[in-house]
Amino acid sequence: DAQNAFKVRISIKTALGDNAYAWDANEEYLFKAMVAFAMRRYSSKSTTQISNVLLCNVTDRVSFWFVVTDSSKNVTTVPGSEVEAAIRMNRNRINNAFLLSDKTLQFLKITSTLSPPVEPSTPVWLIVFGVVLCLIVVGILFLVVSGIQKHKKKNKESTERENLEEKVEVTLENGIPCEALDLKAGHINGVFGADDERFTSL
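^ that's the sequence the OP posted. Answer follows.
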C-alpha cells in the first residue's frame, strides 16, 4: 500500500505458449535488476542497488507490486514520477529481458510508450509508381482489344454487304440490264397482255 508502489501483471503463457518459462526467484531477481538498471540509467547515478527494489504480494498468475527505496534513506521510497519516467525510458530493454511486450508485461499505472512508426519495406513512391504503371497498361490493353473488336466488326459488315450484292444479280441482255425474274410471282409478258391487240387492224 505504499504511495509510490506500482502493480505489474505478466502473461507469460499468452506471450510464449508452449515455450513459456516458470516465474521463480531467479525471474524475480532479474526483474529487480532490470528496474535497478532503469533507475541508474535514468538518474545517471549508481546509488540504486538491486536490494532497493522490493517486491510484495506475488501471485501464482504472476502479478505483484514493487517499490523502489532510496539508498541514502533505506526506508523512504523514490517518488513515483521518477520510477515511471525510468520505466518508460527503458521499457523496451525490460520487455526484451523477459521476451515479452507491452501487452504481456503490464505496468498498470505506467502508460506504454508509443512504438516508432513502422516503415514499409517498399518505398511509398515505388508503390505509387507501380499503381500508375498498372493503370497505364490496363488502359493500353483496353484500347488494343476495343480496336481489334471494331476492326473485326467492320470486316464482318463489309463481308455481309458483299454477300448481299452477290445474291442480287443483274443480268445483261444486249448491254441492257434486266431485272431478275421473280420465279414465285412470275412475270407478265406485255406482248400477250391483251387479246384485242393480238392482231393488227386492217
